[in-house]
Write a structure and sequence with these properties.
heterodimer, A: 5-stranded antiparallel β-sheet, 11 strands, globular, B: mainly beta
């Protein structure tokens, strides 16, 4: 069964600090991996999308890495801001022509404090 | 460009009632997806519509149904509501299957 596991489940950091969120998956065959940010009461917003051949991709202060061999991804947030407080969801897409095959992680709840 | 819009924002129902949730995709997007996000759980795939047809459905009972209209907007209907149906229901749209999905802000369904 395809699974996406994220860690930690929740995280509290001080403003200005860096943090790294982890995503391990068993989805196969792999198509791509996306990180979404979901603010409270809002829908998820895409941060990055990575395909099999991409190791690192940045979007401002967000940097995602992908190791397709070990089936692991990380999202690194640099110089955190209060507005980074949100749920970060890892989504892995299965390569198939038969339909929508996305597997969602349960997210990491990040809180940035003063 | 307007994003994915969902209505209503909140919906309160009682057990046994029926609920209708609506979604308008981004202009030009033909694929619409519905997800359920229950408290403490990840997004669970419900339904995928493309060009007016149901293309795939997740592991949900038949009382979860929907449709897509000629203008690509979509409705999700939930019949015989149960307490565990309380959740945030998210709609997403994409240009086509496999293209990035853009999410609306959801409808919060509460069952009393």
């Amino acid at each position: 069964k395809n699974q996406v596991e994220q860690s930690p489940q929740s995280l509290i950091i001080l403003e200005g600090k860096n943090c790294t969120l982890q995503c391990n998956y068993t989805v196969s065959p792999f198509s791509n991996l996306r990180w979404y940010k979901q603010d409270t009461g809002r829908g998820p917003v895409s941060l990055t999308i990575m395909t099999f051949s991409e190791n690192t991709k940045s979007n401002g202060r967000y940097t995602a890495t992908l190791d397709a061999d070990t089936k692991q991804s990380s999202l690194h947030i640099t110089a955190s801001q209060l507005s980074d407080s949100a749920s970060y969801i890892c989504v892995v897409s299965e390569l198939t022509g038969g339909g929508n095959k996305l597997t969602f992680g349960t997210g990491t709840q990040l809180k940035v404090e003063l | 460009e307007a994003g994915v819009t969902q209505s209503p924002t909140h919906l309160i129902k009682t057990r046994g009632q029926q609920a209708t949730l609506r979604c308008s995709p981004i202009s030009g997007h033909t694929s619409v997806y519905w997800y359920q996000q229950a408290l403490g759980l990840g997004l669970q795939f419900l339904l995928w519509y493309d060009e007016g047809e149901e293309r795939n459905r997740g592991n949900f009972p038949p009382r979860f149904s929907g449709r897509q209209f000629p203008n690509y907007s979509s409705e999700l209907n939930v019949n015989a509501l149960e307490l565990e149906d309380s959740a945030l229901y998210l709609c997403a749209s994409s240009l086509a299957f496999g293209q990035p999905q853009h999410f609306g802000d959801g409808t919060r369904l509460s069952i009393l």
